[in-house]
């Protein structure tokens, strides 16, 4: 068994949850600008996430749900996750995005992962508070990956990390195999290989025997 950890926004999904939420609040352009600065390592991820969440203060839960309903997996992502599951690997999503969006996208495609480590947007009186909670604000993805390997008694050498942005760097740097999915320039040097589609990612996994039947 290996542990295969995916980033979500920009990797498994070409949606950007905070931008979709921002569209419901009329602040999508400001969201996108903050996100781009963070992904290029110009702004700390924790700071960027708090800035984006603050812009959502007052958004109704109904409008937030409408945004989460528009989160989609990339073409081929659900099939690839299912093949990894069938091969006996532990699949995980490690994302600074939000649990609800990840769960909606996976459920829509009828696929599941073993572990989701994600953040949450608290609400009060039916509206978002502008705060953000969760393990991947100050916590980093290498810490999350190391925690999962300890839980399943696996060495880091038997992990695969797939990501695209600066907040993925920690897990890419410690994983046994680091795959950049359309990675930002600051991320590319940390990658063992780079792909631009789920089809190509599947071929990388096939070449390394990850999709062999257990």
UniProtKB/TrEMBL annotation:
Please give the superkingdom of this protein's source. Archaea
Q: Which cofactor does it need?
A: Mg(2+)
Q: Which GO terms describe its biological process?
A: L-serine biosynthetic process
Similarity field = Belongs to the HAD-like hydrolase superfamily. SerB family.
Q: Which NCBIfam families does the UniProt entry name for this protein?
A: HAD-SF-IB (TIGR01488), serB (TIGR00338)
- What name does UniProt use for this protein? phosphoserine phosphatase
Give the matching PANTHER family.
PHOSPHOSERINE PHOSPHATASE (PTHR43344:SF2)
Looking up Pfam families in the UniProt record yields: HAD (PF12710)
Which InterPro entries does the UniProt record give? HAD-like_SerB, HAD-like_sf, HAD_sf, PSP
Q: Which organism is it from?
A: Haloplanus ruber
Q: What general EC class does the enzyme of this chain belong to?
A: hydrolase
| SUPFAM superfamilies found in the cross-reference section | HAD-like (SSF56784)
Give the residues annotated as active site.
7, 9
| Gene Ontology MF terms in the entry | hydrolase activity; metal ion binding
Q: In which pathway does it act?
A: Amino-acid biosynthesis; L-serine biosynthesis; L-serine from 3-phospho-D-glycerate: step 3/3
Q: Which UniProt keyword terms apply here?
A: Amino-acid biosynthesis, Hydrolase, Magnesium, Metal-binding, Serine biosynthesis
EC numbers: 3.1.3.3
Q: Does the keyword Metal-binding apply?
A: yes
């Amino acid at each position: 068994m290996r542990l295969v950890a995916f980033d979500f926004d920009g990797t498994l999904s070409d949606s950007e949850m905070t931008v979709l939420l921002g569209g419901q609040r009329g602040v999508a352009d400001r969201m996108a600008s903050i996100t781009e600065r963070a992904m290029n390592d110009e702004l700390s991820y924790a700071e960027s996430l708090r800035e984006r969440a603050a812009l959502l203060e007052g958004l109704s839960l109904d409008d937030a749900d409408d945004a989460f309903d528009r989160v989609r997996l990339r073409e081929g992502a659900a099939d690839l996750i299912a093949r990894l599951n069938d091969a006996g690997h532990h699949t995980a999503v490690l994302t600074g995005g939000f649990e609800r969006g990840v769960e909606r996208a996976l459920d829509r495609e009828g696929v599941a992962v073993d572990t989701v480590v994600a953040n949450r947007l608290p609400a009060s009186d039916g509206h978002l508070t502008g705060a953000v909670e969760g393990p991947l604000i100050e916590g980093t993805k290498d810490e999350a990956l190391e925690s999962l390997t300890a839980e399943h008694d696996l060495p880091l050498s038997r992990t695969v990390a797939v990501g695209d942005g600066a907040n993925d760097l920690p897990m890419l740097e410690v994983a046994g195999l680091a795959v950049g999915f359309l990675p930002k320039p600051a991320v590319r040097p940390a990658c063992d290989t780079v792909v631009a589609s789920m089809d190509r990612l599947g071929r990388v996994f096939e070449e390394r025997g990850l999709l062999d039947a257990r």
